[in-house]
């Protein structure tokens, strides 16, 4: 087990894994934790697109930050990256951003169908950008190779 280098963690986070977003909740409640699609390019911001009226958006607005955890958990390859930081922007998401996110996870052909099928509900989506500030990483492949 070892931590990842900066280059390794940023390359790992840039892959299209499903992330698990966590944000501080109301008093007397645990943090809200939910799976999300996200985008990230090394050295850039984390972007999540979600419907505007959801509880997670309200909590992110109140907290001004959130955390994201991404992992691979298969035989001979267990790695994870968790990152948290401040929100830099919340704004309406464009149809193109919705397509780009869907294409990242589903491929271009299925993304077109997905965007068309969700056009009415996606029109109220927001793009939330977070600047990675704190990283926590582990690569267990070193142990598994022994």
Which descriptors would you attach to this protein?
single chain; alpha+beta; 8-stranded antiparallel β-sheet; 8 strands; globular
Question: What helical percentage do the residues reach?
Answer: 25-40%
In angstroms, what is the radius of gyration? 16 Å
How many β-strands, per DSSP?
8
The sequence of SSEs as H and E is HEEEEHEEHHHEEH
Number of helices: 6
Structural class: alpha+beta
Question: Which quaternary structure do these chains form?
Answer: single chain
Unreliable spans: none
Mean pLDDT: 92
Morphology: globular
N-end to C-end Cα span: 11 Å
| Share of β-strand residues | 35-45%
Biggest sheet statistics: 8 strands, antiparallel
Q: What would you say about this model in short?
A:
With about 150 residues, the chain is α+β, with helices and mostly antiparallel strands. About 35% of the residues lie in helices and about 40% in strands.
